[in-house]
Amino acid sequence: MPDRHVLFLDANHLTAYQVRGNVLLAGGTFSPDEVGLEAFGEYVAQHRAGVFMLLADVAEEGFHLENIPRSSGRDRAALIKRKLAQYFYGTPLAMAISQGRLKEGRRDERLLLLALTRPQHFEPWLGILDAAGIALAGVYSLPQTLTCLLPKEVPPRLLIVTLTRGGLRQTFFVNGQLHFSRLTALATGTAEESASATLLEAVKMHQYLVGQRLIERGQALPTRVLVHPDQIAVMRERCRDAAELKFDFIDLLAEAKRAGLRTPLADSHAEMLFCHSLVKKTPAGQFVAATERQFYRLWQLRLFLKSASGLILAGALLFAAKQGLDILQAHNAIEQIEQQTRLDQRRYDSALLTLPKIPLSTDNLLALVNRYEALLQRSSGPAPLLIQLSQSLDAFPDIAIERIEWGIVEQLPATPQTAPNQLPLSPGMAGGPYAQTRVEARLPPRMAGDQRGQLARVADFAQHLGATPNTLVAIMQQPVDTQSGQTLKSGDEKRAVEAPRFSFRLTRKL
Predict the structure, then answer these.
(1) How far, in Å, CA of 191 to CA of 206, rounded?
(2) Domain 379-483+497-509 coded CATH 3.40.395
(3) What is the C-alpha to C-alpha distance for residues 489 and 499, in angstroms, rounded to an integer?
(4) Residue spans per domain, the chain
(5) Quick check: bond before 433 cis, omega within 30?
(6) Which of 114, 208, 419, 475 is the most interior residue, by most CB within 10 Å?
(7) pTM of this prediction?
(8) Contacts of 39 by beta carbon, 8 Å cutoff, 6+ apart
(9) Taking Cα atoms as reference points, which of 123, 63, 68 lies closest to residue 87?
(10) Tens-place pLDDT, residues 260-311
(11) Strands 4-9, 51-56: pairing kind
């Protein structure tokens, strides 16, 4: 985190505080003369990398309540700018705080317009900060930090009295929202003077509020006074409750402890508490224009880029760590597999040593195993082929077998030109051996005169026979000569009846 500095500016001096967690370290008090401004420039030059905030406690302040029509975006910004120029002409240190919308009528937005009406008091200090390129977070007014002193149950009308080095400040709240504030300078700042001024200014404030019809005549005004516990007795003696005023004294040290401030406070001057509250709970609005906060915007951009790069670096480191862990786990797994492989190899070698010695080389043993597998393939013989043939004969009982010749071949025989009706070769038929049979068969004598029926019957029989996988059927001789030079006859001629004969070759992969 960068160094943070709070500059507390009153009517006569500027005090610099350096923030260290919950402790404020005084960096020096500077007067508005040439010597003080030069010393302040040296202080700023020593802390150019820090972020500065300026808290003003001056009497030259302006407050005005204004209702504006419902708007947003650029229209709202332009309307607010016009209102600020109308009421606080001549000072660039002005802003507006939204206090919600009215519940009646057009539901206009209610704004509290604030301004520091003497910009000449700020120009020397702001000029030094700008010339040094300091990241100025903003300029704030002390009443903006007093919301930390509001009780849990806020009365409709409340007056808070605080004491700082700049004087006695009375701040008026309506329903928990800032209404206006005024500062009264003190001559000596002693406890007795502060107590007398508190009573006097509270009475004046009550009269003013009655005149402005902000409270009813005769209505008591709750007044909370922030005071050091050593001076509460003096305050109670001078500030007694009356019909118009009801005093409630707040322990300054207790409030500082509740806010987390660890810097000791010696008297009722509470500017250090307000500086601490400004850092811990920075108000949303501030007085400096955005164009004069360019160095702060650059600081925010640098902080964002550094944070983003830090997150990216952290993510890359985590990813690299995960990858390294995965690689380590993979190496461990590989090592375990290698160890298991070596163990299995030793077991295999040991098992081989227990086997009887075979007087054959590895190549000869492999050739012997291949021959054995080939013999196993041939062991089935023609039985599967004959079973297949018998199943087809059962489906075609009118076809009779006259002769069967079978054998085992390593390659498929070439199809002769006399057998063009061979069924297509399936992929499973690649590679032998094959069981092969040549069959001579005959059709029933009743089909002797029906040549077309003979051809159709043989084709159906061949298709049924070749439906079994890894089977090849080739018709070697048709019952009818189908050469182009011959003519198919209807069979009306008078001749002896003879059963038509045909032959085919059946091949099946073993």
Answers:
(1) 22
(2) no
(3) 16
(4) 4-60+118-288, 300-354, 379-483+497-509
(5) yes
(6) 114
(7) 0.64
(8) 28, 30
(9) 63
(10) 999 999 999 999 999 999 999 999 899 998 878 888 888 888 888 988 999 9
(11) parallel
